Amino acid sequence: MTWFSTNWNIMFFPVYYSGHLATAQEKQSPMKKFRECSRIFGEDGLTLKLFLKRTAPFSILWTLTNYLYLLALKKLTATDVSALFCCNKAFVFLLSWIVLKDRFMGVRIVAAIMAITGIVMMAYADNFHADSIIGVAFAVGSASTSALYKVLFKMFLGSANFGEAAHFISTLGFFNLIFISFTPVILYFTKVEHWSSFAALPWGCLCGMAGLWLAFNILVNVGVVLTYPILISIGTVLSVPGNAAVDLLKQEVIFNVVRLAATIIICIGFLLMLLPEEWDEITLRFINSLKEKKSEEHVDDITDSSTHLRSRSRANGTVSIPLA
After folding, report:
1. What is the pLDDT of residues 77-118, one digit of tens each?
2. Where is the chain membrane-spanning (predicted)?
3. What's the rounded Cα separation, in Å, for the pair 258 and 263?
4. Whether the Cβ atoms of residue 84 and residue 119 lie closer than 8 Å to each other
5. What spatial distance separates the first Cα and last Cα of the chain, rounded to whole Å?
6. Confidence tier at 324 by pLDDT (50, 70, 90)
7. Other Cβ atoms within 10 Å of 274 Cβ, number
8. 153 Cβ partners below 8 Å, 6+ apart?
9. Residue 11 gets which letter from DSSP?
10. Residues with Cβ < 8 Å from 279, sequence gap 6 or more?
């Protein structure tokens, strides 16, 4: 499933180029646009050496992230797995702090502690049952490899625009098709995994999942360009209540107090991770502006009341003398 879905990433750049043809005033040829987007790999563009050197580690991390996520879904409900995957924000912060020397933020340390607490509580929710612990380990492993992917991307490739992201993800799809294809075969012959004949496979479900996976990757990158990254992150955490609603409707899970508390703690920690680096200064400026606005309104009320008193005094034939 992971290999098949990742192959669909090859279509990312053609979809991007179709959008370019439909919206751009100055249209470029496919090869010219391809070379322009290849600058994410360096000034020389995409060479065979860079293809192997830069694409291989990211392709492996991509495969591990999705493979471990699907393994976790075999042991846990979709709600638990999506909640545990939200811990990747905490892992990104810890890795960025250690590797990239990003700014230390106390609130994000608190969020990381909350994420770890939620992980332990999620394992405890089923009294540390073997399947539960294995499922939690798979989900946390998926979140960890996802975090490592993001940190390494920032370290080696920096920030990418929409076209460069489309080029890079399509390149991952090609690498997956060429070099990762032997992995499912090895797993099959070593009897780690088993599948029936190709005619009996649920191709409709597989294509549907792969199409949704591709749509997710496209929409995430489009959303970052057209809106704000924080909105995409909020969309990620909203998958938790969405999956919870589906699980409840299908009556697959009964939410006990521990599982519910663990989910809420992880989601709160995820939201704390979204706070900007200058959140304390922004909060202080906002509070000060509210105080200044309130004091100005108070002064205006006093001025209006004194003006009203003067007008009443003149109407009664008296003159009010201001005191020094």
Report:
1. 888 898 889 888 888 888 888 887 777 777 778 887 888 888
2. 51-69, 81-100, 106-125, 132-153, 165-189, 201-220, 226-246, 253-275
3. 9
4. yes
5. 85
6. very low
7. 17
8. 58
9. G
10. 107
| CA 50 – CA 66 distance, rounded (Å) | 24
3-state class (DSSP) for residue 27 = coil
What 3-state DSSP class applies to 43?
A: coil
- Round the CA-based radius of gyration of the chain to a whole number and report it: 28
Q: Report the C-alpha gap between 124 and 259 in whole angstroms.
A: 8
> Three-class SS of residue 276?
coil
Residue among 41, 14, 32, 21 at smallest CA distance from 160: 41
| CA atoms within 13 Å, Cβ hemisphere of 288 | 6
Residue from 1, 18, 11 nearest 173 by CA: 11
Token pair belonging to 104? 């230390």
CA distances 167 to 145, 162, 177, Å, are 21, 9, 15
CA 269 to chain centre: 14
pLDDT in tens, 246-296: 888 886 666 678 878 888 888 888 888 777 766 666 777 777 787 777 776
CB-based contact 68:145 (threshold 8 Å): yes
Please say whether the dihedral angle defined by the alpha carbons of residues 81, 83, 84 and 90, taken in this order, is positive or negative.
positive
CB neighbourhood size of 214 (10 A): 21
User: How confident is the model at residue 292, as a pLDDT?
Assistant: 76
Question: What amino acid occupies position 310?
Answer: R
SS3 state of residue 321: coil
pTM over 0.90: no
Average pLDDT over residues 65-87: 90
